[in-house]
Structure formats: structure tokens, C-alpha cells
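User: Sequence in, structure out. Go.
Assistant: Echoing your sequence, followed by the C-alpha cells.
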Amino acid sequence: MDANWFNNFLLFLIALSSLKLAINGYIDDMPRDSIVVTVSFYLDMVVNFLFLGECIIKNIVLGSWMDEGSYLRDNWNRLDGFIVATSILDMALADINIPGLKVIKLLRTLRPLRVISKNKGMRLIVFSLFDSIGPLGNVVMVVICAWGMFAIFAINIYAGKMFYCDVGTYQYGTKYECNKQGGSWSRYD
């Protein structure tokens, strides 16, 4: 079997799983015996077991964690394993209605991240983004300083301009001066 075909098949499964995840929000209100909910449940089960099979096969072929290139030594494989484990756990606990277990359902939203682990180009983009975080910190500091200067300038320019004193409207420019003259400091309409 060609590895490229298998990788494309896995990408198709990830896209199918993500589409099913997006549709789930619309079918939650449907009755459980509805055909759409039943198909969705079985589709989820098939996709989860195919991903579980992929994890098991990779563990057998690469080894679990002892060797240098083993399954759990690669961070992308760890992410895949975590997503598959939470999907299987979510599927196993689907009929149990405990509020604290709803967090596991939220972890299903990590499924589309599997695309990154299967696509070398996307992995390169993610690594580049993480490498650029440090230099972007410097840019953010410069932008924050510039915003701070403009904020101080705006406060000095517009201080008291959004309010007025009902006694001597243009005579008193601060709340203190207005209250001292017995007036009320009010906001413009």
C-alpha cells in the first residue's frame, strides 16, 4: 500500500470527522432515534475506531517509547494519541450525564489539529509560527509603547471635554471647579 494514499485517506477521515463535528451542533436538538443522529453516531464510531487502528499500527511498527524514532517520542504522535484517546473516552461515556464530563466533549474540537500532524507543509508553517513568537514579542512591546504614548496624549487633550458644568457652561473645565461653584458635572448627550 502506498504511504501517500494512506496519508490522503487519513486526511479524508480527518475532514469527514471535522465536518461531522460541525454538523453536531445542528443535530443536538433532534430526537435520539432520528436517522440523522443514528448515522452521525455510527460515522463517529467508525472514524474513531479507524483512528484507533492507526494509533495501534503505528505503535506496533514504530514501537511505543523505547527507541529514538518511536511513536511516543514524536510530539505530533502524542497529540494524535491524545485526541484519539479522548475521542474513545467521549464515545464510551456518551450515555453518562455528569456535568464534569462535558469537558471531554470539548476536547473533540482538537480533532482538526490532526491535519497538521499529517501534512508536512502545515507542520513547517506551525514550527515557523512558533519560532517567530520571540521576535514578535519585541514588536508587541514597541506597539504597546506607541499606544501608551497616544493614550496619554488623548487623555490630556480630551480630559473633561465630554462633560460640562450646568453653571457657567464654558467657564469651568473640571469637575472640581464645577462642584466648587455649586454646579453639577454632567455628560453631553
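User: And one key feature?
Assistant: The longest helix spans residues 35-62.
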